[in-house]
Design goal:
With 113 residues, this protein is of the alpha+beta class. The protein has two domains: 81 residues, no CATH class; 30 residues.
């Protein structure tokens, strides 16, 4: 639990998982439709400066951020902050679901760790 508190303190003022809807319409069922052109990004969270989060696409750092980037609207719709362990677990599961488990991709992931 101490590790969780330390991690959450490092990402303040963000929560672990954040969904931003300000620029989108919300339908009668509470659904927000993010444009199909939005893309997933991975970046390192480097802290805050002047009230804005600093995210670096260069590999490295302890806090990995999974971001759904709505480039058309210059807006991050989703941000989840992951520990290295969570990121490796997610990468492994994504590769398995993408059926790359017998491909060199999984070996490349193993080389990193």
């Amino acid at each position: 639990m101490v590790g969780d508190v330390e991690f959450l303190n490092k990402i303040k003022p963000y929560n672990k998982h954040n969904i931003y809807t300000k620029i989108y319409d919300i339908d009668k069922d509470g659904v927000v439709k993010i444009p199909n052109t939005a893309k997933w990004l991975v970046a390192t969270f480097e802290g805050m400066k002047d009230g804005c989060g600093l995210f670096n696409p260069t590999v490295g750092g302890d806090i990995i951020t999974l971001i759904l980037d709505d480039e058309e609207n210059n807006f991050f719709a989703v941000m989840s902050f992951l520990t290295k362990e969570e990121a490796v677990d997610l990468a492994y599961k994504l590769l398995l679901h993408a059926k790359f488990s017998r491909e060199p991709c999984l070996e490349r992931l193993a080389e990193v760790y």
